[in-house]
Design brief:
The complex is a heterodimer of chains A (339) and B (400).
Chain A (H helix, E strand, L loop, with lengths): L1 H35 L7 H41 L13 H8 L1 H32 L5 H9 L6 H11 L12 H8 L13 H27 L3 H9 L4 H12 L1 H17 L2 H6 L9 H10 L4 H32 L1
Chain B lengths: L2 H5 L19 H28 L3 H6 L9 E8 L7 E3 L2 E7 L7 E7 L8 E2 L3 E3 L5 E4 L4 E6 L10 E8 L6 H8 L3 H32 L5 H11 L5 H17 L8 H25 L3 H9 L4 H12 L1 H17 L2 H7 L8 H11 L4 H21 L1 H12 L2
Antiparallel strand pairs in B: 1-9, 2-3, 3-8, 4-5, 4-9, 6-7, 7-8
Helix pairs in contact in B: 2-14, 4-14, 5-8, 5-11, 5-13, 6-8, 8-11, 8-12, 11-14, 11-15, 13-14
């Protein structure tokens, strides 16, 4: 009990100290800057010079802590991981592209890439599709907001929690026993034999994907629902007057109008999929051919302690993310230009 | 904007003569209701099943689906009758008595038998001839009585097979067990220890940076914004190995065995949350009205003053959005906690604990369901209480 109390006191202290340090830093450096470079009693020319110097230093004072964190925790590691991926497991002997060559020939790596591709094709499309359908349906019904809230709820649940929830749905008892898993109860209720879903070749990956689709659909739905509301009512009304039915309106008006948003949702879910780790780790840990890159990387890092191979797999994940990253940056830059 | 839609459908449907609540219900609308209902059920039933199961009696949970929680469930059992030593003599007859359930009073016997193949051969209250002599009677409450005219001499008690009914029973025993015996209670505290500082620390750091990127003019500003946008999607996997080495090196410097501390996790989560924090806050601050900023500047207010007295209070919705994101992300995180805090039992956060329970108690659904619900209940409360800010943050972070 004592160590629990100590731990909680430590956490509260950490908050207080961190906040105090932030305030002290920001307030202190600003005060110092104004003090050292005060525009006090000097003549006009020197004053302007000091003013300019001050306003060119201040942004960096504001930015410094954030940039420090980003550099140490995100930027430096990217370069270090790339460097480590060219070394052997201990990080001392340079092996060039040896780790990548190993990866290409490793059946587990090949299986992971294949599975990741499947995940990338299925999860973003299903989550976006379901999200769009639910958004459209919910916007037309009086209880739509309650429905949206319920579909959105899994967004708050951890991947591990969701894994337990779905493992319960997929639970398997031998044939003849009473099934307590929902899916097998339905299957046996329809007169088919129960299935061990988690060990079923190929399909087991799909059953794991269902978990992520279940979580991400809420995200897609919320974003797409907002975009749908942004479609000018006159456009929809004009189509209705022209005699377009609901399906025509959906495919010919709504989808083209929100296409940009659909792409954003799609890419965001794609990034989540590329990094997915918890679900595999909790459900199968890569057994029965369900391995994916993020879990494989974790194994090489923490089970085999081979930092070279682990880094090489991390770099492969990074390379897969890179196109979306560049596209995002371009988009952000374009917006800045118009503002 | 909406007036046109509201009026349009009313005209053709006015004179159908159906009851008013049916007036708007066409086949298409009914299908819409049905389709959405099915989808909502798919999205909610798995969680509902978990919650209901976690509150059920663990014997029932193991033998029947959660959808039967309100009905009486049937199970089969077997018990071994005492040997000859347990017999008592009453009026020249010999008896062996007992209860098939021991002390468990929740169940009733519906039928019993002497072989595994036919556990329900005789209804409760009836009697069956025994091969060792005499006859046995099993009552509905589980009490059995084996009576014989001759003394018993067997050294190995025969078995009775029975079918029992368990009345529906809800209990919080599962929660008491996971919170105390299984160590989930400790993990709950650990999760809070990790989450609260990791949510609060990044806010000020990000807010200052966001203000600079939104309202100050300086070289490389565009580059830094692009960098932040890029870092938003960098996989965490890229950071793990170098940071772990770094932490271990620092720990060695201080003479510690490994670098797995709460401080390390807080700082890591702070850094990993910063790109999103800066991005969200910058977008929000950039949207604040330019006139207010400029008139304050003309009045001689410094950037520091404008930020602390005007921008920070005005940015409250964005700060709230980010805090909710960060809270949910840190609470639900497994990877960072496992890498930087380790897998020792007393340092496991809830997600890590749940994974370890999946491994060690994978078939004890009463433990898993209750443990999982303890894990998800805090985010669910935060989510339902602050959904508005959460949605606003999602929209600001994605649609542009």
């Amino acid at each position: 009990m004592d160590d629990v109390l100590q731990q909680l006191v430590g956490a509260i202290l950490a908050i207080v100290i961190a906040l105090a340090a932030c305030v002290a830093y920001f307030w202190g450096t600003n005060w110092l800057l104004d003090r050292v470079l005060s525009s006090g009693s000097s003549s006009g020319d020197a004053m302007t010079k000091r003013d300019n110097l001050r306003s060119s230093i201040r942004p960096w004072l504001f930015l410094f802590p954030a940039l420090l964190f980003l550099s140490v925790y995100l930027i430096y590691p990217v370069f270090e991981t790339v460097r480590l991926s060219l070394f052997d497991g201990s990080g001392r002997t340079f092996v060039g592209f040896g780790n990548y060559a190993w990866a290409l020939g490793d059946p587990n790596f090949q299986r992971s890439v294949l599975n990741n591709v499947l995940w990338l094709i299925i999860v973003p499309s299903m989550a976006t599709g379901f999200g769009l359908v639910i958004a459209v349906l919910a916007d037309r019904l009086w209880w739509g907001n309650i429905a949206k809230s319920l579909v959105f709820m899994p967004m708050a649940i951890s991947f591990v929690g969701a894994s337990v929830i779905w493992r319960f749905v997929y639970d398997y008892r031998g044939e003849g026993d009473l099934q307590i898993g929902l899916l097998n109860a339905i299957v046996t209720g329809l007169g088919f034999p129960p299935q061990a879903w988690i060990t079923m070749p190929f399909w087991n990956s799909i059953f794991l994907m269902v978990i992520l689709i279940w979580i991400q659909t809420g995200f897609a739905m919320v974003i797409l629902s907002a975009a749908l509301r942004g479609i000018p009512e006159e456009t929809l009304e004009a189509a209705r007057i022209d005699g377009a039915n609901d399906f025509r309106i959906f495919f010919d008006i709504m989808i083209p109008q929100i296409w940009g948003t659909i792409v954003v949702v799609w890419t965001t879910i794609t990034i989540v999929v590329l990094k997915v780790f918890d679900i595999i780790f909790a459900m199968t840990n890569g057994q029965w051919d369900t391995e994916v890159l993020a879990n494989l990387m974790f194994k090489w890092m923490f089970v085999n302690f081979d930092y070279g191979r682990g880094s090489a797999i991390a770099v492969v994940i990074m390379l897969a993310v890179l196109p979306i990253m560049i596209w995002n940056i371009r988009r952000a830059n374009a917006e800045q230009g118009t503002r | 904007m909406t007036t046109a839609v509201e009026q349009a459908p009313a005209i053709p449907r006015a004179s159908t003569g159906r009851p008013s609540w049916l007036a708007g219900l066409t086949l298409g609308r009914a299908l819409t209701h049905l389709a959405l209902l099915v989808l909502v059920l798919i999205w909610t039933l798995p969680t509902a099943g978990l919650l209901i199961s976690s509150l059920r009696d663990k014997d029932q949970l193991a033998v029947s689906g959660w959808w039967t929680a309100l009905t009486t469930s049937e199970t089969q059992g077997v018990t071994r009758i005492g040997t000859a030593e347990a017999q008592v003599e009453e009026g020249g007859r010999y008896f062996i008595r007992g209860n098939v359930f021991g002390t468990d009073t929740n169940k009733t016997v519906t039928a019993f038998g002497l072989s595994n193949a036919a556990p329900g051969a005789e209804p409760a209250g009836g009697s069956v001839e025994m091969t060792d002599g005499g006859a046995i009677t099993v009552q509905a409450d589980g009490a059995f009585e084996w009576a014989s005219d001759a003394p018993f001499a067997h050294t190995r008690g025969p078995r009775i097979f029975y079918v029992s009914a368990i009345a529906p029973r809800f209990t919080i025993d599962n929660y008491i067990e996971v919170l105390t015996a299984s160590g989930v209670g400790r993990s709950f505290i650990n999760s809070f220890t990790v989450t609260i500082p990791a949510t609060i620390i990044p806010i000020l750091i990000a807010a200052f940076a966001a203000y600079a990127l939104a309202w100050m003019r300086f070289p490389f500003r565009g580059l830094i914004v692009a960098l932040v946008v890029g870092l938003l999607v960098v996989p965490l996997q890229m950071s793990l190995i170098p940071l772990l080495s770094l932490y271990n090196d620092i720990a060695k410097l201080f003479g510690a065995t490994d670098g797995k501390t709460y401080l390390g996790v807080w700082l890591a989560h702070t850094a990993f949350g910063l790109p999103l924090a800066i991005y969200l806050l910058r977008n929000y601050m950039a949207g604040l009205p330019r006139e207010i900023m400029e008139s304050a500047r003309i009045d001689g207010a410094s950037h520091f003053k404008i930020f602390t007295t005007m921008v920070l209070p005005l940015s409250f919705p964005a700060l709230a959005s980010f805090s909710i994101f960060q809270f949910l992300w840190v609470w639900n995180d497994l990877l960072v906690a496992m890498v930087f805090l380790g897998a020792q039992q007393d340092k496991l956060v809830l997600t890590g604990k749940l994974v370890s329970l999946l491994g060690s108690r994978g078939n004890n659904w009463e433990i898993l369901t209750a443990g999982a619900f303890v894990t998800i209940v805090v985010p669910l409360i935060v989510f339902f209480a602050l959904q508005r800010y959460f949605v606003r943050g999602l929209l600001a972070g994605s649609v542009k």
